[in-house]
């Protein structure tokens, strides 16, 4: 029988479909598709399944997953050194160490000052500083650290623009579930197109301006202004300031990789010289150069 020119069989089928999939909700298959980390809508950000809170609420609001990507490579360009770029990362590094994971710094341009790092909440026994004589050794060490399951964060100060190598580093970070940061010093151009997150840092009116150059989400035209001396992270997470006597007793692990000699070399921990650092080989850097 027909009603208003529409067969009853068709009307019943339409009613059954609407009852199963209400018009106000997306079909389950579409909802699952939209929840994929590589997809986002309009001015929203892509979901980040593993993110480490930065300790700064304003920055977290601008980052996919509301924190630093724990399984990806981040490129950070610095307009001028000493503007608070390392203080920006300390709360997250302390958080990762509290989870039992290590932090590796490869080829930092200056000697890390251990008392300041300890006062910022870092466990120096879980901080490994790697010095390399050649750029290819630093790249090798960076990739190994990113892949190591015990490594929570790996920072490297490198000038490489090899897209093939940068893609390898991104894959290593994803497979190792490691927060990798490729630092670009003043005057160095950024080119890590494989990095899902790219930032530029500059001083602005006594604060640190974080320019989001690339993220898995809509463009952010204005920088995020932060006072890096004031974190939103609870004191229990970032640690409390330690007395000098306590800092002196804490070792920092330092290693140097010599090109072609087959093994990392144990060397005096010059980066921790003010605090009587011990020397040791990072657990995940056993073996020769590549």
List keywords for this structure.
290 residues; alpha/beta; Rossmann fold; two-stranded antiparallel sheet; 27% helix; globular
Task: Describe the model.
Helices cover 27% and strands 22% of the residues. It contains nine helices and 14 strands. The longest helix has 14 residues, at 163-176. It has two domains: 2-32; 46-285, P-loop containing nucleotide triphosphate hydrolases (Rossmann fold, 3-Layer(aba) Sandwich), CATH 3.40.50. It is globular. Helix 7 (163-176) links the parallel strand 8 (151-157) and strand 9 (179-184). By secondary structure, the protein is α/β, with parallel strands linked by helices. The model is unreliable at 235-250 and 259-290 (pLDDT under 50). A ten-stranded mixed sheet has the order 12-11-10-5-9-8-6-7-13-14, with helices on both faces. The chain has a two-stranded antiparallel sheet with strand order 1-2.
CATH fold-level label of the largest domain: Rossmann fold
Number of helices: 9
Assess the beta-strand content as a share of residues.
15-25%
CATH superfamily of the largest domain: P-loop containing nucleotide triphosphate hydrolases
Structural class: alpha/beta
């Amino acid at each position: 029988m027909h009603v208003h020119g529409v067969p009853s069989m068709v009307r019943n089928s339409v009613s059954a479909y609407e009852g199963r999939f209400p018009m106000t909700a997306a079909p389950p298959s579409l909802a699952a598709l939209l929840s994929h980390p590589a997809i986002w809508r309009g001015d929203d950000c892509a979901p980040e399944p593993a993110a480490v809170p930065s300790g700064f609420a304003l920055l977290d609001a601008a980052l996919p997953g509301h924190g630093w990507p724990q399984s990806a490579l981040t490129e950070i360009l610095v307009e001028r050194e000493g503007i608070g770029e390392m203080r920006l990362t300390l709360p997250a590094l302390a958080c990762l160490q509290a989870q039992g994971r290590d932090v590796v710094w490869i080829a930092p341009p200056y000697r890390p000052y251990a008392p300041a790092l300890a006062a910022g909440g870092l466990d120096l026994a879980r901080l490994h500083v790697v010095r390399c004589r050649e750029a290819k050794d630093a790249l090798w060490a960076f990739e190994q650290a990113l892949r190591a399951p015990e490594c929570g964060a790996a920072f490297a100060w490198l000038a490489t623009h090899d897209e093939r190598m940068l893609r390898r580093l991104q894959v290593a970070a994803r497979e190792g579930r490691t927060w990798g940061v490729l630092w670009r010093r003043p005057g160095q151009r950024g080119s890590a197109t494989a990095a899902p997150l790219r930032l530029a840092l500059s001083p602005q009116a006594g604060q640190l301006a974080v320019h989001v150059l690339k993220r898995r989400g809509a463009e952010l035209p204005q920088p995020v202004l932060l006072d890096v001396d004031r974190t939103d992270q609870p004191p229990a997470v970032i640690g409390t300031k330690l007395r000098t006597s306590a800092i002196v007793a804490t070792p920092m692990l330092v290693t140097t990789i010599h090109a072609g000699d087959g093994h990392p070399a144990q060397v005096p921990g010059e980066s921790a010289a003010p605090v009587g650092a011990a020397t040791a080989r990072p657990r995940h850097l056993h073996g020769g150069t590549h």
